[in-house]
TrEMBL record:
<protein>
    <recommendedName>
        <fullName>CCT domain-containing protein</fullName>
    </recommendedName>
</protein>
<dbReference type="GO" id="GO:0003700">
    <property type="term" value="F:DNA-binding transcription factor activity"/>
</dbReference>
<dbReference type="InterPro" id="IPR010402">
    <property type="entry name" value="CCT_domain"/>
</dbReference>
<dbReference type="GO" id="GO:0005634">
    <property type="term" value="C:nucleus"/>
</dbReference>
<dbReference type="InterPro" id="IPR045281">
    <property type="entry name" value="CONSTANS-like"/>
</dbReference>
<feature type="domain" description="CCT">
    <location>
        <begin position="40"/>
        <end position="82"/>
    </location>
</feature>
<dbReference type="Pfam" id="PF06203">
    <property type="entry name" value="CCT"/>
</dbReference>
<keyword id="KW-0539">Nucleus</keyword>
């Protein structure tokens, strides 16, 4: 409870405040009933299907970008400008 929220009335001491909206205890206990177990099972089934379909291989979305990246000069895996590459090769030739 923050300072900006009004205090709860004393006649309702068992109210639960969630996201600014008070809920009676009966609403909270229905979450643990049999109705929510089917919701839980559906959510778990959805998670397992999504987990099974995960892909961990790299997918190239734009072939033109891939070709450009393969053609650009690199030093230790990082892209460099042509001038930097020429200067570095000149130093190595000394």
């Amino acid at each position: 409870m923050s300072c900006s929220e009004p205090p709860l009335p004393p006649s309702f001491p068992s109210l639960v405040v969630m996201a600014g909206a008070p809920l009676p205890p009966s609403a909270m206990s229905s979450r643990s009933s049999g109705a929510s177990t089917s919701y839980r099972q559906a959510a778990l089934q959805k998670y397992l299907i999504k987990k099974k379909n995960r892909t961990f291989h790299k997918k190239v979305r734009y072939e033109s970008r891939k070709r450009l990246a393969e053609a650009r000069p690199r030093v230790r895996g990082q892209f460099v400008k042509q001038e930097v590459l020429a200067a570095q090769q000149a130093v190595l030739q000394w």
